Each structure stands twice: as structure tokens, then as C-alpha cells.
Amino acid sequence: MPDTPAVPDHPATIGVGFLGAGPVTQAIHLPSLARLTDLFRVTHVMDVDAAVASTVAARVGARHSASMDELLGDPDVDVVAICSPHQFHAAQVIAACRAGKKAVLCEKPFAVSGEEAAEIAAVSAETGVPIIVGAMHTFDPGWLAAEELWGDLPETAHTLRSSIVLPPNARFEDFATEVIARPEMPERDLSDPAVVAAMLEGGILGLAIHDLPLVRRFVPDFTDLEVLRADIVKPFGYVFVVRAGGRTVELVAAMNSTWKPDWTFEAIGRDAALKVTFTPSYVQAGSAVAEHTRGGRTTVGGPFGHNGYEGEWRRIADIVSGVASAPDPQGLIDDLRFALAIVEGSHARVLEAAA
């Protein structure tokens, strides 16, 4: 009788460990990975709240812990997904690289200063561990279609516009899953300039940052960046007007009880225009749609079968398997520097208005 074939110790799929088990992990990444079980399996969930880690891990049959070191030492974790608060990102990315993992996915922003970003890039180069920043729109097949359609628009566009109108995240999260331990939103005193400055910073680093890498495709040089307007919209939102690289950049967002979400990115030139309409982050409902108009003729790209979150996980699988390269670290640093420059300019605007 022939010998029975040996059973491998682990499946051929890529093991994923999560640092942070909050709403983004629960309502975005786990549903995305549930559609990619031929590529990934969730093997470990870590959260500083052990009860949250245990509950979320149980949903996917994974180990759980309240220790980053325990997760990084887990041999079944090939890729680390960092979904913790912003201030922990840099240290956790560096630790995951030094642990020799196959790749690191970090939610945006992957650092909160240019110095941290440069250190991350250096550690990634030293260890050979690729880093992917979770700017999901750059991985959306609708956006990739826009890149194929836009012709010379990156050189000729004069106005760039990101417009986001959404209900509060909790509404989408509750549709997606039963969220465990959602953080409480504090009351804010909008008469305090420091509070306004912090809210504007949160708007850039928490929401606008989804589209800033798209803006950067049209504004590679932003050494002349100037924030012309920076205002809060109640109950939560913002209006920014920025001049950079000879272009006007408009960033507008409002989160309220609207019945119809809308998320669009536009690039407008003298002879052509591009509009990309994205699905809301928490809606697992397919890709963006790109519309490029020139000379009265509109060419449409999409919709496609998956969104940017699934797209970034597919890219990670390709990177781990060696069929795709990781994003350019310098590009990631420059995207962050662009966001931080807008934050700095908005702080100056707030201080000027309060004077």
C-alpha cells in the first residue's frame, strides 16, 4: 500500500494577525477577508482589551491575546494588520518589520510625523519587509481604471476636489456587524481654538487622508503649499481650500443624518475632467466608477466586482507570493508629508482667526 501523503502543518493560505480589534477590523477587514478565504486566514487577533480580542477572534476561529509581542511571535502570523490608534502605528510597524513578517498592512496614517515615516522606510529597507498603507482608494479597481483613462490630466488639471457626505461611521458599522466596544465620542467645545485645530487635524488624518494620495498624483511637488481656508462643519465635517503645485485643492466633508451617502473625487482641467465615485468605506458593494470626459464624450470605467479594501488585500497576496512589488516607500512618505503640511497650515489658520 502506498504511503499516505504527508499533511502540511499549515494551510497554504496566508496567515493574518490583527493588532487592534476595533470597528475597522470588525466591520471592514474581517468581511473583506471572508471573501478571500482562498488567499488568507485570520490566525491571531490582539487587542489591549482582552475581552474584545477574545470575542472578535472567536468569530473567525483565531487565537487571541492582549500582547503585541505574543502576536508577533506567533509563527502562524505571516502578515500583520495594524488597526490601532494613530499614535501607536509607527512603533508597531517597526516591531512587525523586525519580527520578520512577510508584509505589514498599516491603517492610515502609518506615522504622525515625517521623522517617524522616514524611520519606518529605513527599517523596511533594512529588513526587506514590505509595508502597505491602507489608503484603500488607491487599490480600488475603479481608481485603477481612472489612471488608464485620464490621459494628460495629471499635467493639465487646475482643480482637484474630494467631496465626502456620509452618515456617522457607526451607522455603517452596525449594518456590517455587531461592533464590540465602540469608543465613545467626547463632547467638543468649538469656542476653543485648540479643540478646533485638533478636529481639523483629525479630519485630515482620519478622513481626507483616504483621498490625499489621489490628489498627490496631480500634485507631485507641493513645496509651495498654502492653506487658504480651514473650517469645521457641524456636527462633524470640514472645508479646506489649498493651493499647491499651481493647483487648487478643495477638500469637503460632512457627516450627518443624510439618507444618500456620496463620496467623489474630481480632477478638472481646461479640456477634460475626471470624476470617480466611490462606495462608502463600510459598504462592501463593489468598486468605484470612473468617468472621464473630453470633447463632450464620456468614457466610463467600472463598476468592478470588488472594492479597494479587497483590492489592497489582493495586492498583499501578490506581494507575498512575489508577483507584485510593494508601494514605493518614498511615495508613502511624501503622501504623509502632504497631509501633515495641510494640518500645519490649518493650525496656522485657526491661530490667525483666534488672534
From TrEMBL:
Cited InterPro entries: Gfo/Idh/MocA-like_OxRdtase_N, Gfo/Idh/MocA_Oxidoreductases, NAD(P)-bd_dom_sf
**Domain Gfo/Idh/MocA-like oxidoreductase N-terminal positions:** 15-134
Pfam families, alphabetized: GFO_IDH_MocA (PF01408)
Molecular function, one GO term: nucleotide binding
Protein name per its UniProtKB record = Gfo/Idh/MocA family protein
